[in-house]
Amino acid sequence: EACRCASRHNTSLSENSLAEHRSLKASASVLAVSDRQALETLSRDEKTAFRTLAQEPKTKNCNGDQERLRADKQTQKASLEEKLATLQGDHARSKQEYENQQSEGTRIWYFV
C-alpha cells in the first residue's frame, strides 16, 4: 500500500522504511493466521453450542416420553398380573370341578 501511495506521488521508501514495512507485513501475516484459527475455533464452538441448544427440547420430550412409557408399562403390568390371577383362579376352580366330576363318575360307576 505504501509503495502504491509512494508511486502515485513519485516518491519511494527508504531502505529502512521498506524493511520496516516488510517486517510489519510479515508480523501481520503471522498474527492473521492465529486470529483466523481462533475465529474458526469460535465458529465451531458456536455451532456446537447451537446444536446442543437445539437438541434440548428433543431431549426433554424424550425424557417425558420415557416417563410416560414407564407409567404405561406399570399400568399394563398390573393389568396383566390381575388377569393372570383371575385366570389362575378360574383354572383352579375348573380343575377342581373336573376332579369332582371324575370322582362322582367313579363313585356312580362303582355303586352300579
Automatic annotation (TrEMBL):
Which controlled-vocabulary keywords does the entry list? Coiled coil
Which residues fall in a compositionally biased region of kind Polar residues?
A: 8-17
User: Would you say which domain of life the source belongs to?
Assistant: Eukaryota
> Which residue stretches belong to region Disordered?
1-20
**What sections of the sequence does the record tag as coiled-coil?**
70-104
What is the designated name of this protein?
Answer: Uncharacterized protein
